[in-house]
Amino acid sequence: MDFDLTEEQRLLTDSVTRLLADQYGFEQRKSLLRTPAGWSERLWSQYAELGLLGLPIPEEYGGFGGGPVDVMLLMQAFGRHLVLEPFLASIVLGGTALRLAGSPAQRDELLPALADGSLKLAFAHGERQSRYDLTDVQTTARQEGGGWRLDGAKSVVLHGDCADRLVVSARTGGSRDEPEGISLFLVDGEASGLARRGYALRDGTRAAELSLTGTPAELLGERDAALPVIERVVEAGIAATAAETIGAMEAMQAMTLDYLKTRQQFGRPIGDNQALQHRSAEMMIALEQGRSMAMLATMSLDEPDAEERARSIAMARVGVGQAGRFVSQNAVQLHGGIGMTEEYAVGHFFRRVMVIEHLFGDTAHHLDRLADQVA
Amino acid sequence: MDLRFTPEEVAFREEVRAFIRDNLPADIRERMRLGHKPTKQDTITWQRILNAKGWAAFSWPEEWGGPGWTAVQRMIFLEENLQAPAPELLSFNITMLGPVLVEFGTEAQKRRFLPRAANLDDWWCQGFSEPGAGSDLASLRTAAVRDGDHYVVNGQKIWTSTAHNADWCFCLVRTDPKAAKRQEGISFLLIDIRTPGIEVRPIISIDGSHHLNEVFFTDVRVPAENLVGEENRGWSVAKYLLGNERTGIARLGTSKAAVRRAKEVAREVRARGRPLIEDRAFRTRVAQLEVDMKALEITQLRVVSAFAKSGGKKPDPLSSVLKVKGTELLQASSELVMDVGGPLAMPAWQQELAALANEPAPVPDWAPAMAPAYLMLRAASIYGGTNEIQKNILNKAVLGL
């Protein structure tokens, strides 16, 4: 048991914190939100130069060879500043799929480009009807000539509008909800028969709807047997967004404390009221319990036993989800009216936490899975 | 960063688990398994077995009989003992008085009291709270006036757990009523409970048990050599004691044992035509408790680890998080157990049938301890600093409000 950071991890945290403090003020972020892309190519290059994009990519592919803890620290810092760039979509989700399922040739070709920022991936698995069921895939793949063609649609694909290539799931066998018969494919962003409709999610981050009509695709990994890979991609997403939620909660907690100390009513700071003091103590308790669970998610990613890993990740998801709701709802409440405004930061953190909770299975979904396993 | 125990720590946990399995007497094990509180004799028997092994004074320095464990080992030991479940060490002796004497006691006090406290030859109780001094402990009024080589004590203590079992009481008394600050006129005295002028009166709590007492002091003569630390400096002694008291405050092992127990009984009882264990609402409730226990387990590891790094001196304000969440879980898990029992958890038949030992029990053996445990644990968020006080502490120490 050890909660210490290595020297390298401390340096990483310091440099990211410095960069974001300098480049990611609330107003700077708001101006990024107003651009068509909704995020910054310039910052993306800076992340690449700092080695952040290669963080979880093995050194032999030009990456940093970091582990889940490194990603946790980075995502936590990103959460504190509501970073808009496609790190989660491209590096965490796309990168995990590529690392786990890619052939040696595919990894040689794509991982170095991922690490240097010249390639952006997106992970296109969810469909309109699938909600949180990972086996509910209706997009189909058929062989034609030497290659594959995909037909169907994908929904709420994170940063699917800007990705150079997309990791797309499709049925090569079996029927809806069957665990077998799902395969992963690489689809070029410019491929014929691919239509993308980009939009902002409620927190301003970008996503897209994909429509696939005879779209040419390249098989990624084993045919019919992609579900275990998809599960691990989702687990990596859960751990990363758990850490991001912790960062967002830290920011909301700090903002709220500051507000309680400065906002005057009845001739004294509102933080003098014990009702509000206790609420802020409860927020802190929730944050610390959530932090413990984000650590659990991070540490579990390397657990070889799939069942044990899934259980820990689900527990972490529930713990962080509930903490996130409690902290964000009360952060708005303690701010009062100003917390409801678009011009004030707390609502933006609130919406990021809200969006995160509805990716990769919400609290009820994961609690229900855990309830299945009670023994 | 690594949340796993080291191989040495895993081996230590196995050693503790095996020792408890092999040495906890069968009758005590069965009472504990069914959720009953240990009897006075159960507590004495088990603490003496642990003391013979060298484990009872688990947090004391080796010089005074401690096993020389790390903070992680101490936590593992406490958790294993709780979740066995085995009787807890008498906290008044082990986590309160012992460390206080080691830190503040004279050589003579240490030699006289520490070995007997470890072996539970003396049963100690804590004379802190008074009718007018609950959360606001510094307003205590029980007075001690110096008279030659004695203090003469007059006043009243309340909520004195197990005073009726006790041989000795460590008390906070006011020795300087004129001190500029209330905290400055308080002293820490060791009082033989059989000294003339002491009267212990029972308070029966809502679980029907006699655990609490009022203790009245009328012209009680206490030898001055029983003063711990300096006169009028008892508040620092008390603060040190309360800091120690919070190590292990989460009592997670007890909650784990309760959830395990609830699942066992839920296999036996039926709900709407099926075993209760198959009921969705029940399973979701268990799953939620298991999530909350997991989070607290990791938070506890973080606190223990930080405590060890600080050199073991500074109690972490985050231990207030352990107190609040730990007691919420104790209460929620005891509620779960009682709800599993349903109507069979409700009869208070012991009183009526006490005289008829041969009469068969009207309820299964898993039922009688359920409601008392639930009722007793309503106190968990009140004692040791109410959960509201813990939130005040968090605000002052961490949030700066």
Structural account:
Helix content of chain A is 51%, strand content 16%. With 375 residues, chain A is α+β, with helices and mostly antiparallel strands. Chain A has three domains: 7-115, Orthogonal Bundle (Butyryl-Coa Dehydrogenase, subunit A, domain 1), CATH 1.10.540.10; 121-224, Butyryl-CoA Dehydrogenase, subunit A, domain 2 (Beta Barrel), CATH 2.40.110; 228-372, Butyryl-CoA Dehydrogenase, subunit A, domain 3. In chain A, strands 1, 2, 3, 4, 5, 6 and 7 form a seven-stranded mixed β-sheet that branches. Chain A has a two-stranded antiparallel ribbon with strand order 8-9. In chain A, helix 1 (7-23) runs parallel beside helix 4 (68-81) and helix 4 (68-81) packs across helix 7 (227-262). Chain B is an alpha+beta fold. Chain B has three domains: 7-89, Acyl-CoA dehydrogenase/oxidase, N-terminal domain (Butyryl-Coa Dehydrogenase, subunit A, domain 1, Orthogonal Bundle); 124-233, Butyryl-CoA Dehydrogenase, subunit A, domain 2; 246-399, Butyryl-CoA Dehydrogenase, subunit A, domain 3 (Up-down Bundle). Helix content of chain B is 46%, strand content 15%. Chain B has 13 helices and ten strands. The longest helix of chain B is centred in the C-terminal third of the chain and has 30 residues, at 280-309. Chain B is globular, with a radius of gyration of 22 Å. The model of chain B has no long low-confidence stretch (mean pLDDT 93).
* CATH fold category name of the largest domain in chain B: Butyryl-CoA Dehydrogenase, subunit A, domain 3
CATH class of the largest domain in chain A: Mainly Alpha
The secondary-structure class of chain B comes to: alpha+beta
Element order of chain A: H for helix, E for strand = HHHHHHEEEEEEEHEEHHHH
Task: Round the Cα radius of gyration of chain B to an integer and report it.
Answer: 22 Å
Which residues of chain A sit in consecutive blocks of at least 5 with pLDDT less than 50? none
Give the biggest beta sheet of chain B: 4 strands, mixed
* CATH fold-level assignment of the largest domain in chain A: Butyryl-CoA Dehydrogenase, subunit A, domain 3
